[in-house]
Amino acid sequence: MNWQTLPKTELHLHLEGAAPPAFIQELAVEQGVELNGVFDAFGKYQWTDFAEFLDCYTRACTVLNSPDAFRRLAEAVLRQSAEHGVIYTEIFISPDFCGGGDPVAWQEYLAALDEGADAVPEVECRWIATAIRHLGPAKAIRDARITADSVGGRLTGFGMGGEERYLTAADFAPAFAIAGEAGLGLTSHAGEVVGPESVRDTLDHLGVTRIGHGVRSIEDTDLVSRLVAEGITLEVNPGSNIALSVYDDWADHSVARLRDAGVKVTLSTDDPPYFHTTMTHEYEMMNRVFGWTRADFDAANRLAMEAAFCDDATRTRLMTQF
Ligand code: HPA
Ligand code: ZN
């Protein structure tokens, strides 16, 4: 089976986190800045744990400081997706990186992102505007407001990433309420570096239909039953979880156990160059370690399209690919 050309969906991909190191390095050279400590001797992103990963990511993002840089990035990332057979993707972007929360600048960044996406029509793309948890609830509310004011076109979702150990989900409920009222699809990272209580809090307070990661839900059987009963879709990123040592190795990963329990499980890469993965690699590993066949991948992709933050015409059209 040629896993690379198999049609795929991806619901969990951070635009900045998908930037190849060479792309970030090129911007740094253009701007005449030194990105000390971001790259190792081989030009790869350098970090050792989750906190360092977030720090490396933030520092790399300092050269993503214009709409044109984001236009180029969106185009490069979507070409990468197309190369790995992705036909539908949802990409996390953030008002914090795109204009620092200024509503006028945000519009310019959004237009540039759409221009980048227009250049790769073979991938159907939606944006999920994303609050950064460790920047706090006030910035999350500001992000939700400017997202709510610009909902439409490819901008169909609101989410939250960042340091999961910072505050509790309830602290971010006002931001998610604003986004939900605006009709945006809602998802949040939880159950990645924090255990089941983080997923439970997120379901209790944020009104999400999807959870980014959620893999540590397996540690609580009642929570697993709740995910099934409520039809919550997990955006699982196995390679990311291995790289960040959530699991020691692939065979230990909870993805198969969650699916066996009836949880809706989908596959994504999160931040591929940081975690040395691609969609093709994720599929190869799921096949090798858990014996997933084309039928299993197609089923996961249908679940992804059902949970996608897109219009029904797009959903119906793309569903026929799986
Ligand atoms: N987890 C939390 N925040 C993030 C991630 C992640 O994997 N990637 C980019 N921001
Ligand atoms: Zn993520």
UniProtKB/TrEMBL annotation:
Q: Which cofactor does it need?
A: Zn(2+)
Q: Which UniProt keywords apply?
A: Hydrolase, Metal-binding, Zinc
Name of protein: Adenosine deaminase
Q: Which GO terms fall under molecular function for this chain's record?
A: deaminase activity; hydrolase activity, acting on carbon-nitrogen (but not peptide) bonds, in cyclic amidines; metal ion binding
Taxonomically, what lineage is the organism? Bacteria, Pseudomonadati, Pseudomonadota, Alphaproteobacteria, Rhodobacterales
Return the Gene3D superfamilies for the record: Metal-dependent hydrolases (3.20.20.140)
The entry assigns this protein to a family as follows:
Belongs to the metallo-dependent hydrolases superfamily. Adenosine and AMP deaminases family.
EC number of this enzyme: 3.5.4.4
Tell me yes or no: is Metal-binding among this UniProt entry's keywords.
yes
Ranges for domain Adenosine deaminase come to 7-321
Out of the domains of life, which is the source?
A: Bacteria
Q: Where are the transmembrane segments?
A: none
Question: Is Glycoprotein found in the keyword set?
Answer: no
